[in-house]
């Protein structure tokens, strides 16, 4: 029984010549017409399948034009190899004609590689593995400009005001054509927790209740040890400065504000260096004010000594970074010691407490500065003259305070001298007479300081 002959494959729209050319381009020759016709029909079927699937995406997108993205989606759904996107116009591939026994073939123009040159070239570096590093995201709320942090956004001006039109005609300004830029004010936002903390802290510091001392100590202890108060520092400094300027005669409030400054300095997690220009005037005011009760007020003297100790600590910590800081403080203290009305005011220039505060403050600036102001410039003589009109208890407080300061700043004498004539000329009769009785070695220390100054000048 003879096998039935296979039916002849009918050619479709896709031409078999394209199949034959593609086969010859890869070196397949002698392709029969039936095979070429069969492959052409299969290609036509695949194209039809892809186009029909792409038409579905086109209809779902509510479009009437078929786009390349529809073809790509259809290939992805049919699990076929995606088409590579066409090359740009600047990089159109070039083909060259290659003669083969089966006929000419067009192939891509490839660059020939010299193996000897490739072997001589150094090997590329290996890519580094993943690594981790640390960097500062923000310091005191300010983001540093480093490559690891995002670049700050350039926020444009809120609006611009065009210059007046008559400025050009009148010639009022050469740059009248330039617009004036107005930037919006910058707001410092605090969290609700910090706002609540600030309200309760200030209320505890100024509380008039019977347990005000305990509440104040608890508030200062919290301020001294809490590490999350960086955003409150400018508000606390301004609060202390305002209360000091308006309540100089209230020693209790001044004591509380000095406690606030002391707690801010003690808190090692706070950065108070940007606020020195506000803290130092506050401390100098509490040191040199004439609004305190007159001597012999022990509380007023204690406030001046506390202010002096805080100034000494600030100068010790930040004086090296700001060379003119000590000089500016010393200049203010010199003016108060000499009774300069333009610097300290008319009332403070004749106040013994202000002069006494300047003596205590000079000890905080440094020994050499204190010796020059008190001994060489005869600053103690003015205090002695003002103290002569005081009562006996007030005189003793002034004398004891001056003796305490001179004992700490003057050098130890090599020999004890009993001649007080030189001490009278430098310190005044009141202080010199008490020195001879209470601390005779101070007379010798003053003489030694004067001799050292004379030898340095020679």
Account of the protein in words:
With about 450 residues, the chain is mostly helical. Among the domains are: about 10-80, Histone, subunit A, CATH 1.10.20; about 270-455, Serine Threonine Protein Phosphatase 5, Tetratricopeptide repeat (Alpha Horseshoe). It is about 55% helix and about 5% strand. It has 21 helices and 4 strands. The chain has helices at about 15-25, 35-60, 70-75, 115-120, 165-170, 190-205, 210-225, 235-245, 250-265, 275-290, 300-320, 325-335, 340-345, 345-350, 350-365, 365-375, 380-385, 390-410, 420-425, 430-440, 440-455, and strands spanning about 95-100, 105-110, 160, 180. The strands form 2 sheets. Strands 1-2 form a two-stranded antiparallel ribbon. The longest helix is centred in the N-terminal third of the chain and has 28 residues, at about 35-60. Pfam families: TAF, TAF6_C. Keywords: Nucleus, Transcription, Transcription regulation.
């Amino acid at each position: 029984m003879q096998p039935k002959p296979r039916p002849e494959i009918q050619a479709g729209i896709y031409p078999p010549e394209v199949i034959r050319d593609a086969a010859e381009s890869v070196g397949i020759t002698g392709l029969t017409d039936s095979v070429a016709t069969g492959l052409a029909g299969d290609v036509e079927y695949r194209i039809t399948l892809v186009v029909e699937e792409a038409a579905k995406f086109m209809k779902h997108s509510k479009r009437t034009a078929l786009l390349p993205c529809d073809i790509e989606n259809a290939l992805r759904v049919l699990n076929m190899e995606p088409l590579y996107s066409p090359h740009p116009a600047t990089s159109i591939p070039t083909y060259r004609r290659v003669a083969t026994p089966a006929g000419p073939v067009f192939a891509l123009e490839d660059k020939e590689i010299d193996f000897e040159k490739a072997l001589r070239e150094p090997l590329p570096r290996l890519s580094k593995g993943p690594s981790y590093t640390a960097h500062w995201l923000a310091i005191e709320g300010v983001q540093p400009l480093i490559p690891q942090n995002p670049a700050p956004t350039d926020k444009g001006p809120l609006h611009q005001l065009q210059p007046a039109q008559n400025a050009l005609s009148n010639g009022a300004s050469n740059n009248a054509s330039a617009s004036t830029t107005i930037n919006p004010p910058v707001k410092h936002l605090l969290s609700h927790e910090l706002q609540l903390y600030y309200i309760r802290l200030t209320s505890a510091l100024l509380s008039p209740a019977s347990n005000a001392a305990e509440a104040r100590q608890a508030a200062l202890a919290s301020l001294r040890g809490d590490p999350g108060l960086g955003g409150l520092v400018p508000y606390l400094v301004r609060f202390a400065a305002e209360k000091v300027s308006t309540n100089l005669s209230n020693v209790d409030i001044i004591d509380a504000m000095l406690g606030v400054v002391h707690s801010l300095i003690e808190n090692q997690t706070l950065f108070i260096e940007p606020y020195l220009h506000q803290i130092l005037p506050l401390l100098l005011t509490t040191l040199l004010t004439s609004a305190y009760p007159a001597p012999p007020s022990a509380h007023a003297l204690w406030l001046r000594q506390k202010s002096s100790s805080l100034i000494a600590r600030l100068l010790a910590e930040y004086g090296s970074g700001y060379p003119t800081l000590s000089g500016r403080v010393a200049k203010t203290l010199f003016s108060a010691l000499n009774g300069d009305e333009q610097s300290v005011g008319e009332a403070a220039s004749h106040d013994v407490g202000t002069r006494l505060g300047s003596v205590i403050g000079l000890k905080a600036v440094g020994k050499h500065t204190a010796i020059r102001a008190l001994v060489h410039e005869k600053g103690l003589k003015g205090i002695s003259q003002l103290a002569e009109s005081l009562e006996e208890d007030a005189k003793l407080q002034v004398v004891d305070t001056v003796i305490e300061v001179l004992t700490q700043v003057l050098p130890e004498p090599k020999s004890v001298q009993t001649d007080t004539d030189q001490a009278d000329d430098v310190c005044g009769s009141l202080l010199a007479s008490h020195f001879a009785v209470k601390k005779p070695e101070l007379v010798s220390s003053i003489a030694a300081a004067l001799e050292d100054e004379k030898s340095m000048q020679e």
